[in-house]
Amino acid sequence: MLRDINDILDITSKIEEVNRERDELASKIQKINATSELALRESTHRDKIVTEATKDILNNAKSLDSVIELKDKYGDLSILNNLQEHFKKQKKIDLALKDLENVESDINSLFLDSIINTNYEVVKEIADKLNVFVSEYLNLDSKISTFLQSLIKKFNEEFLENYISVISEDFEKELLEAKWDKIDYMLRIDDNVLKLRALSTNIYKFSQCYIICNENDNNKLQKFRFRNFKSIANNFKIRFMFHFHETNLNNKKFKLQIYFQFLNSYLSENLYKCINIFHDHRNAISESLVHEQFIDHILEPIRTKIKFILMNKKKENDIKTLLILISEILTTDKNLTKSYKYQGNSLINLIPSDIWDLWVSYHIEVSTKQVDSLFNVNNPNANSNEDQLTNSSKDFIKLFNKFFLNLEAFFELSLISIHEEYKLILFSKIFLNLINKYLSFVLEINILKDGNKHSKQEELLQTLIKLENLSIVNKMLIEYSNNLIFIQLTDLVNKQNKSNSQKINSIFENVINEYETNINHDIKDSIIYRIQKLLKESLLKYFKISSKTWSTISDNSDNANKNMHISSELSNTVKLMTNINTQLKNLDIDQSLKFSIGNEILNITVKYFTENILKLNIFNRQGLMQVKHDYESVVMSLDILNDDYINFNHKIMLESLAILNLKYDFNAQEFTLKEYAKGNQFTDLKDYLSIKYMNDSEIQETLFRIVYGNIV
């Protein structure tokens, strides 16, 4: 649209601009058309090439070589790469099948030779080839797998097993004739022994040629590869069957132990003889291999017999025989491990869980009855039999050891997880039950007769007996904590307890803590309390000695203290303390506990002499000396003092007496003045009397007793 004069004047240039744009547009359209035609021609050409290449590949990709030629022609196409891998695999399969056919021919040739002419090296070579095929080709192709497994079956079952069966039969005849396992057989490495060794080694070598294709063959392989040991154990099998084939288990005179005694006797006589005869280092038959396999194969008829007994006695519900059998199995397994170092398949693994339940329940029931019969305060005889408490720790230890010996073989065996639970159940229901019942028994029993008509000394004696018995048992529990069986049980508990904060150091930890709480606190405190009552009662007459007496005791000479006698009022106290000291010394308890009790008695003695004698009376010089002599006599009867022991209260008592004696020291009168006592500075006094234990307030209090006339 023309808007003004300028548009009219510029119309020519506008027309020219429009023409230029039209020409440019026409040129672009022409180029686009030309490009489209070229693209169409190129696309048509490309389709033609692809079609021809596809037809070429389909018609000519018939072999590995032709595929390689096609790759040279068309490049690295994925379809050609796949075809190349396919033909490579097929070529490998074809070669493998051809090789397997050759192996089949080799296997067939084995059947053409007589037994005598069978060559081990030939058999070993075939076995090696088959093993290579198993490792490299078994899963490569179903055709190979089927063919290979058929060859292995033919090699293993039709040739190898039959061949070894024949030569084993000959070997077993030689073994019987040699009578090598007779008790009177004298072992000499001669031609006969070398012949037996060679026959055994030959069977072993052929047995190692057995081929396995999958894991299901492993069990069979393990048995077959030690076929020579089955033959070596044949002598035992024959003798065992000869002795026991008509055994009647219902015959009361027959004992199951005879089976296991026979086994032990045979091993004792022949194990190391067997090792010496049949080991062969040149053919990888070591002494340890002979040792393990001989025992393992000797056990086979025993295992068969055990299975038979378990099955029949379970049907008959003959629990007694089953329990005896389990005990014998445990004992035998322990003996095999300890005496013969056997680490193979235990006999105990033959026992099913339901029979284990019977065995565990039986032991718990029997142990509970035994514990209750000994350590039950409700037992009519419990509170009337002094020996039942006095000897209770011996009874406990005897019973604990009995339980331990009965179950030791079970606890020592490395068992499956279900048996770990049995271990913990047995420990809890038998050992912990015994320990807890015994503690309750000792704490609750009262052997004092006639109700309340008994002396305080009898009460003390009963408490001392309780202390001794609990201490003996606690000491035994601490020792058993270091036993390997209980260490393993501790580890088992910690393994089952996933919380690290609740790990225990010993499976006895809680019960030991409970015992020690009673020993070191409750019972000890009770003993100290009873001694305190006895001591106070014995001192009553002594407490009644008046100041008049203490302050008027005559001083006949300067050496009177050398011949000084204990106050007559204290004679019973000294006898009492001497008797208590003897009782403590004779107790089978820790020395630290004896010391702790003696230390507390000394503290009580100091308190009585200080509070009831020194602070309540007036003394002259001889009276003060008498009190000191009396005090030292009582302390001496306790027999607790020695060079390594310091009781602060005792030292303070002696220092107090020394300060009071300053009244009679003419060289120390300045210390007895009121002004000095009020001064609170006692360094020179401490130096003068070598005071180490009294503090200033105690010194001041003692000095004031002089000042106020308590010392005359």
Task: Provide the descriptors you would attach to this structure in a database record.
single chain, 712 residues, mainly alpha, Methane Monooxygenase Hydroxylase, Chain G, domain 1, 5 domains, 72% helix, disordered N terminus, Tip20p_domA, Tip20p_domB, coiled coil, Tip20p_domE
Task: Give your account of this protein's structure.
InterPro entries: EXOC6PINT-1/Sec15/Tip20_C_dom2, RINT1_Tip20, Tip20p_domA, Tip20p_domB, Tip20p_domC, Tip20p_domE. The N terminus is likely disordered. The protein has 712 residues and is mainly α. It folds into five domains: 55 residues; 146 residues, no CATH class; 101 residues, Up-down Bundle (Methane Monooxygenase Hydroxylase, Chain G, domain 1), CATH 1.20.58; 156 residues, Orthogonal Bundle (Tetracycline Repressor, domain 2); 165 residues, Up-down Bundle (Methane Monooxygenase Hydroxylase, Chain G, domain 1).
